[in-house]
Design a protein that fits this description.
Elements: H1 5-31, E1 46-49, E2 52-55, E3 59-60, E4 64-65, E5 68-70, E6 78-79, H2 81-97, E7 103-105, E8 127-131, E9 134-136, E10 141-142, E11 155-158, E12 163-167, H3 169-180, E13 187-191, H4 194-206, H5 211-220, E14 221-222, E15 233-238, H6 242-246, H7 269-280, H8 301-304
Parallel strand pairs: 5-7, 13-14
Antiparallel strand pairs: 1-2, 3-6, 4-5, 8-15, 9-10, 9-12, 11-12, 13-15
Helix pairs in contact: 1-7, 2-3, 3-4, 4-5
Bound molecules: zinc ion.
């Protein structure tokens, strides 16, 4: 009788159950200890929530780089490293696909996080203000001079230069798409005005962009209430990863089903059935083919989205 097969089989299956459980327990255990200190070495990175949290070991955006520039040099360019680098990658993609534009970036977080005025959030390295791409009425891309309010006609008045500027919907969509399709960006929210959202989704649909990406954009885009209309920039927020949660990142708001819970495969209903079946089977029956479809073969919500 192959007595060793059963523990091995259960072990493999149980691991798929145990990893998320361990992560959640670890996350829960850190949830009440949200202050990084030498006594809490596990608490690090993006700690707490965007509106009551801190940041350690953040990465700092350069003052300028491939396709982007900071709006202000005010030491508020810190964020979760994976998030900061995802923004850099997205800016570089826009510059490569449609050269000539500049992604102007407002505040992320302070080096150690915490409150920065006038923001309600931006406290733990998960938020970034990305100023809309701008171009002249003639279609020449220019770095946006600041937070300009775009109307439903896609135009904004630039008080400094006494001119109208156009919302550069093409580059803005490439930016949105790049962030949404970047596994490390883990976009939970894109706060943006309904008008700008409509322009972006309309443009993407007309261009035949991937339906899945458009659907995700529709889901994550929202005009915050309260928090300003966001007719001048996208406020993008990254969701905690499991690794972030283990180190003190607290989730709030919706879970986006298409974001992989990295390193912990989702155990869908078929997977649970398979585990239960394995536990109930007599020892000499575990080598028989399972009558149930395997978890890997079964369609999952992630694959479907
Ligand atoms: Zn913001």
């Amino acid at each position: 009788m192959p007595t060793t097969t059963f523990p091995l089989r259960v072990s493999k299956l149980a691991t798929r159950v145990a990893l998320p459980a361990i992560a959640l327990v670890a996350a829960a255990s850190t949830a009440c200890v949200r202050v990084p200190s030498p006594l809490t070495p596990l608490v690090a990175g993006s700690v707490g929530m965007p509106h009551r949290g801190v940041l350690t070991e953040g990465a700092e955006l350069a003052k300028s780089g491939d396709g982007f520039a900071l709006l202000r040099d005010n030491d508020r360019g810190y964020g979760l490293p994976r998030f900061v680098h995802a923004i850099e990658r997205a800016a570089a993609i826009v510059a490569a696909v449609r050269p000539g534009g500049t992604l102007v970036i407002g505040d992320l977080s302070a080096q150690n996080g915490g409150s920065i005025m006038p923001h309600f959030s931006h406290r733990n390295g998960r938020d970034a203000d990305l100023v809309f791409f701008a171009m002249t009425l003639e279609g020449v891309p220019i770095p946006s001079p600041g937070f300009l309010h775009y109307g439903a006609d896609g135009l904004a008045w630039d008080e400094t230069e006494h001119r109208y500027l156009r919302f550069d919907v093409e580059r803005e969509w490439i930016l949105v798409k790049s962030l949404l399709e970047d596994d490390q960006a883990r976009v939970q929210w894109m706060f943006i005005s309904r008008t700008a959202e409509a322009m972006l989704l309309e443009w993407a649909s007309a261009r035949g962009e991937p339906a899945e990406t458009i659907a995700h954009a529709h889901d994550v885009m929202a005009q915050p209430q309260p928090g300003g209309e966001h007719d001048d920039h996208i406020h993008v927020r990254t969701a905690c990863s499991v690794d972030d949660m283990v180190h003190g990142c607290e989730t709030n708001g919706p879970t986006r089903p298409w974001l992989a819970i990295s390193a912990t495969p989702r155990l869908d209903a078929a997977g649970v059935d398979e585990l239960v079946l394995a536990l109930l089977q007599p020892l000499d029956a575990v080598n028989a083919p399972s009558p149930l479809p395997s978890a890997a073969a079964a369609p999952t919500p992630i694959a479907a989205r």
